[in-house]
Amino acid sequence: MRWRPIAVVLGFGLFIGAYGAVLAQGDGKMAKYFVGDLRTGYTFATPETQAIQDDDFANPAFLWVDYAVELWEDPSGDAGKACSDCHGAAEDTMKGVGARYPVYNAELGKPINLEQRINKCRVDNMQAKAWKYESRELLGMTAYVKSQSRGMPVQVQIDGPMAPFYEKGKAFYFQRRGQLDMACANCHEGNAGNMIRANLLSQGQSNGFPLYRLKWQKLGSLHRRFRGCNKQVRAAPYGYGSDEYVNLELFVANRGMGLPVETPGVRM
Amino acid sequence: MRHLRPLSVTLTALAMSLGLLLGAGAQAEELVKYQIVGGESIDKSLTGQPGDPVNGRKLAINRKLGNCLACHVLPIPEQAFHGNVGPDLSEAGGNLSEGEIRLRVVDSKVLNPDTIMPAFYRNDGFERVMKKFQGKTMLSAQQVEDVVAYIMTLKGN
After folding, report:
1. Which parts of chain B register pLDDT below 70?
2. Mean pLDDT computed over A180-197
């Protein structure tokens, strides 16, 4: 196992430097994280947090990814197959895949996200049990597959059969909810760059997920983040993998169209 | 979706005692009725009692109650983090009348339907509120008065 200086990094300047990072728009290594008016959560992170993401050996998310590298080769389920039996080397066959999810699934007649696609392979193609949301397996495999698209632009389909689902996701995004009566847009459109108490609000982009949050001390899915953002306005969250969140995921991905996939990102 | 507010109903002794009771943290259902004057201010105290500015300051800090610091800068130096989503309130007590501040705390959306500022004294018309907060206001009527009294003390230098 590689050594990862998690504790060192954690104690070090969690809040320091947040403002400097915001100002450093467009210079050198930061440039790729800005696309037109879009900017990823990375650009709002402190230099210390950015440094963890920049270094795969320091990034604790790779504990999960490394595990998924093993799982990729492990036969599992009644069919006795491993992912690699059908998909070969992930570096080749999974390149660009994560950047275009959620995708339309004709069999189900609705969009599915990457977690659901992986579980479809587990159930349909391997005759294995679906992995649970937020399990080490599903988080790790999702991050592993999506990281094969690192640096590639997010590009989802929203027309054709996806159109009605995109519209639902959009309506969700602008719907005020909870006792605090706030929509996603209130915080992430109108106030990106502002402080909400100790938190610097970003544009709420999804291109780094699953990502490692220092607060969680864990890799977490986008739906976990959605649940947290719902709960902090005292709104009842939806379930992991719910249609509502997959539609929202589609809208959020398209909103960040063209941003580079950062998975696995690191955030505070 | 906006709904009608009981504009012209005056405070009755019943509503008052009810309000005080609910403020104690019981299942809030019935709110104290209030009158919005000229669409701009709520002139009368919700409880008929004056607010306590010392408690109001505590409420402005408390993350589970007022949490005004989430969005506003206030002269509260012992707290490290003040948000800047809303305007600096360090002189709000000099710029606005007590009634204008009360309306903003009770329900800012009467003045600006697009605002991000929550209504601290409203308990319906919301979408998908978590069960434990359903039918409840963020602040009790007396807590609103306390916060208003605190903001009124802020006159700058």
Report:
1. 1-29, 157
2. 97
Confidence of residue A44 (pLDDT cuts 50, 70, 90): very high
Euclidean distance between CA atoms A38 and A193, whole angstroms:
12
Longest Cα–Cα distance in chain B: 44
- What's the pLDDT at A29? 80
Q: What is the pTM of this model?
A: 0.91
Helices (H), chain A: 6-11, 18-23, 47-54, 62-73, 83-87, 90-93, 114-120, 136-147, 163-174, 184-188, 222-231, 243-255
ipTM of the assembly? 0.86
Q: What does the pLDDT look like over A135-178, one tens digit per residue?
A: 999 999 999 999 999 999 999 999 999 999 999 999 999 999 99
For chains A and B, count residue pairs whose Cβ atoms are closer than 8 Å.
69
Inter-chain CB proximity B126 and A181 less than 8 Å? yes
Residues in CB range of A232: below 8 A, 6 or more apart: A180
Fold classification of B4-152 (topology level): Cytochrome Bc1 Complex; Chain D, domain 2 (1.10.760)
Q: Choosing from A86, A184, A187, A229, which is the catalytic residue?
A: A229
**For residue A217, what is the domain's CATH number?**
1.10.760.10
**Whether the Cβ atoms of residue A46 and residue A13 lie closer than 8 Å to each other:** yes
The Cα B75–Cα B148 span in angstroms is 15
- The reply to whether A86 belongs to the active site is no
Give the model's pLDDT for residue B29: 66
Q: Which domain holds residue A226?
A: 3-59+160-267
- Measure CB to CB from residue B130 to each of A181, A182, A234 and give the nearest one: A234
pLDDT at A28: 75
> Is B80 in Cβ contact with A191 (below 8 Å)?
no
In a domain, residue A110? The reply is yes
- B118–chain A Cβ distance below 8 A for any pair: yes
Q: Tell me which chain A residue has its CA closest to the CA of residue B62.
A: A197
B129 touches chain A (CB under 8 A): yes
